[in-house]
Write a structure and sequence with these properties.
The protein is an alpha/beta fold. Helix content is 42%, strand content 10%. The N and C termini lie far apart (52 Å). It is globular and about 70 Å long. The chain folds into two domains: 79 residues, no CATH class; 216 residues, Rossmann fold.
Length: 298
């Protein structure tokens, strides 16, 4: 390392302020992983982080032993798709911060749903656990673009996922569009702490069917719906005419469509709208988690 050497020192390899590791040449095998925690301990820590994409890596560690298990786990981490790495790193960092602080709120999201908003939630200290529904897994593994499963299948899959995560009392349910709608259908049954819907599909554009609100009138689960003011599935004028349970709060994101994208003329950007959606959701969860006397005095 060049740390500690003056910038002008002739023995310094790099002439900037940032020290860098040198290449090590060894005549005998060197275990670079020596000194790391035991694989089973590492697996337990990964499970604590509550990042769904780490589950296969935790399984490798839990089922192996010694440097070989650690090597395989690191290889699996390095195989993460490059376009997913920034969001995953943000989720892992947020999970580490929450674990270090002694726990925190957890939100279960469908794997493809709102990756940018999920990453922002994770950065705000909310642990985001991602999981797949059957048709999503099929798309990922086979490349077939089949339509979503029928509602009963989706509901059973949501309930099974929540049970596998330790039950609804330990987490919030969240989703974008279809993911949020199915989560709202099982929220009371699963007993989740709360529900976050990003872009709820109240009524598909041009549909002559009744709006998807019948169950929302009697929903007991505290719910936040974050909706764009230009959402074709339900804008302010439409939603104002729907009967919703008193525990449902709606936050409107200015000029956002169903994906929160604004028009250029609005002066806003999609990134700004997603940041607002995530910030509102994180603040809502923090308020819900605050002691009742704190909420009363807010």
């Amino acid at each position: 390392m060049s740390r500690g050497l003056a910038l002008g020192d002739k023995s310094r390899n790099y002439t900037d302020d940032w020290p860098k590791p040198e290449i090590l040449c060894a005549l005998t095998q060197f275990e670079a992983l020596a000194g790391m925690r035991a694989p089973q301990d590492a697996a337990a820590l990964l499970k604590e982080l509550a990042v769904g994409e780490l589950d296969p890596i935790a399984a490798i560690l839990a089922g192996g032993s010694g440097p070989q298990a650690l090597t395989e786990a690191l290889a699996a981490i390095l195989a993460w798709p490059s376009d997913r790495r920034p969001a995953l790193v943000a989720e892992v960092a947020a999970g580490c911060a929450v674990v270090a602080a002694g726990g925190g709120p957890v939100v279960a999201f469908l794997a493809p749903d709102a990756p940018d908003a999920r990453a922002r939630l994770a950065a705000a200290g909310v642990r985001v656990v991602r999981f797949e529904l059957p048709y999503m897994r099929l798309r990922r593994t086979t490349g077939e673009r089949k339509p979503p499963d029928r509602e009963p299948v989706l509901r059973r899959a949501w309930l099974a996922a929540i049970e596998a995560m330790g039950g609804g009392a330990a987490l919030y349910a969240g989703g974008k569009s279809l993911g949020g709608r199915i989560a709202s259908l099982i929220a009371d049954e699963a007993g989740v702490r709360g529900l976050v819907c990003l872009g709820y599909p109240f009524l598909p554009p041009g549909s002559s069917r009744p709006p998807r609100t019948a169950h929302l009138l009697d929903l007991r689960t505290p719910t936040l719906i974050v909706q764009g003011t230009r959402d074709a599935f339900g804008g302010p004028a439409q939603v104002a005419g729907y009967a919703l349970a008193p525990g449902i709060e709606v936050h409107w994101v200015e000029d956002g469509d169903h994906s929160f994208a604004p028009r250029r003329s609005s002066g806003r950007t999609t990134a700004q709208n997603l940041a607002e959606a995530a910030a509102v959701a994180a603040a809502w969860i923090r308020r819900a988690e605050a002691p009742s006397d704190t909420r009363a005095g807010a």
